[in-house]
Write a structure and sequence with these properties.
By secondary structure, this protein is mostly helical. Helix content is 35%, strand content 8%. The chain contains three helices and two strands.
Length: 75
C-alpha cells in the first residue's frame, strides 16, 4: 500500500486511482503488481526478472527504456 501526505493541504492520498492521478504529472507511474507466488524468498535476480517480464517489457516500451535492474532486499 502506498500513501502520500500533502503537508500544505494536511491530507493523505491512499486510493490507487487517486495516487496515480496525483503522481502522473510528475512523471511517476504508480502501479501495484500481484506478487503472491511468483517467486520464492530465495529467488535469483534472473528469476525475478523472468517472473515479472511482461510488466517490465510494458514499462520499457512505455518509457523507452532498454534495461531493467533488480534490487533484491532480504532480511
Amino acid at each position: 500500500m502506498a500513501r502520500i501526505w500533502i503537508q500544505d493541504e494536511q491530507r493523505h492520498i491512499e486510493d490507487a486511482a487517486a495516487l496515480r492521478a496525483f503522481l502522473e504529472p510528475y512523471g511517476i507511474w504508480y502501479e501495484r503488481w500481484d506478487v503472491a507466488g511468483r517467486v520464492g524468498s530465495d529467488a535469483t535476480d534472473d528469476a525475478i526478472l523472468s517472473a515479472y517480464q511482461p510488466e517490465i517489457d510494458r514499462l520499457k516500451a512505455r518509457g523507452g527504456y532498454v534495461t531493467a535492474d533488480v534490487i533484491n532486499v532480504k532480511p
